[in-house]
């Protein structure tokens, strides 16, 4: 078959048009939606009433690059702690917006602790558990009224584990009346999308501007999440928060979240993301931030840290020299960004190659801004270094790490800022 003569192109679809939501911060707002880049956020897992631990974890998440941080506010003690946490962070020069995550009793806590309501930059409301029956509407209205009073945006976050049962029954009854009833998954999808859209419309009717509303519909299945957000994206023009809930532990959670979110982001759907990984005991909560950044950067949507291109290794690279150099280089780049991001604008887009042998090493290194190509097994420790496609020098000796890092630093100083 003769192919039509046209260039092969790449890149994600144009971003879906949404309202731009300004989440207030002490040094300026973080914008979700509109023309703003996709925002990375995370959530603490400390007891919020423990001010010291929560402040330390927020700092860790911000250090990793989180642009919004959500905290559980579930008790009077947690609500009392919020303004103290905010003050401690401000005193330390950490001005990240804090989001309050409310379930069941948010209407009470926001009323009883106005200092908490003021200190938070945004409220997360789950329409499935703000109340039952007649109390549902009044308690939802209370939270929206307080958000309007303090000019705070809200995320109306639907979760399939806590759907409004009255709404779900209504959707099921409607389905039963169809001549060809929908399958059960489609009914669930419809309930999730309807809950989000109707709750947002209710919030607007109560005085909440559309540009202070973010929606989410969280599920734990990859195909389910894609189906729900595709439909949600065509039914509204609110900014959307993406995240696979209960994604799992370790690589399973990373793979599942990346599989779901990358499809939606490629289609132009999504304005802020969170990677919800179940952490290993004692491990850093900041891992979810790094994964979110790497997902966006791998897709070409944002740049955060110079990325290392490295081969997986083979029989030609069976020693640990190549593995250690690749790992140490990536660690060095992430550490340096705490200084580089302000001193050398644009450095986050730099590409660094660390290749293990001469098969693809020289060619791949020439494609990077700066790259190193090791000789493989059985050779004297030495490696060619390329800058901007041209051979720069040959490194020799047992301290290739330090030599290569010094060359990277010189390249950064001469090409950025």
Give the helix/strand layout:
Layout lengths: L20 E3 L6 E3 L6 E5 L7 H14 L3 E5 L3 H16 L6 E5 L3 H7 L1 H6 L2 E4 L8 H16 L4 E6 L5 H12 L7 H22 L7 E6 L3 H14 L3 E4 L7 H17 L5 E2 L13 H12 L8 E4 L10 H23 L7 E5 L5 H7 L2 E4 L8 E6 L2 E7 L3 H16 L2
Helix pairs in contact: 1-2, 3-5, 6-7, 7-8, 8-9, 11-13
What does this structure look like?
It contains 13 helices and 15 strands. With 417 residues, it is α/β, with parallel strands linked by helices. An eight-stranded parallel β-barrel has the order 3-4-5-6-7-8-9-10, surrounded by five helices. It has a five-stranded mixed sheet with strand order 11-12-13-14-15, sandwiched between helices. Strand 13 (370-373) and strand 14 form a beta hairpin. Helix 6 (165-176) crosses helix 7 (184-205) and helix 8 runs parallel beside helix 9. The longest helix has 23 residues, at 321-343. The mean pLDDT is 95.
Helix/strand-derived category reads: alpha/beta
Arrangement of strands in the largest sheet: 3-4-5-6-7-8-9-10
Q: What overall form do the CA principal axes indicate?
A: globular
Q: How much strand?
A: 15-25%
The tally of helices reads 13
- Could you estimate the helical fraction of the residues in percent? 40-55%
Rg value: 24 Å
- Average pLDDT figure: 95
Q: Which spans have pLDDT < 50 for at least 5 consecutive residues?
A: none
Run of helices and strands: EEEHEHEHHEHEHHEHEHEHEHEHEEEH
**Biggest pleated-sheet summary:** 8 strands, parallel, barrel
Enzyme class: oxidoreductase
Function: Converts 2C-methyl-D-erythritol 2,4-cyclodiphosphate (ME-2,4cPP) into 1-hydroxy-2-methyl-2-(E)-butenyl 4-diphosphate.
Region (Disordered): 1-26
Domain IspG TIM-barrel: 27-292
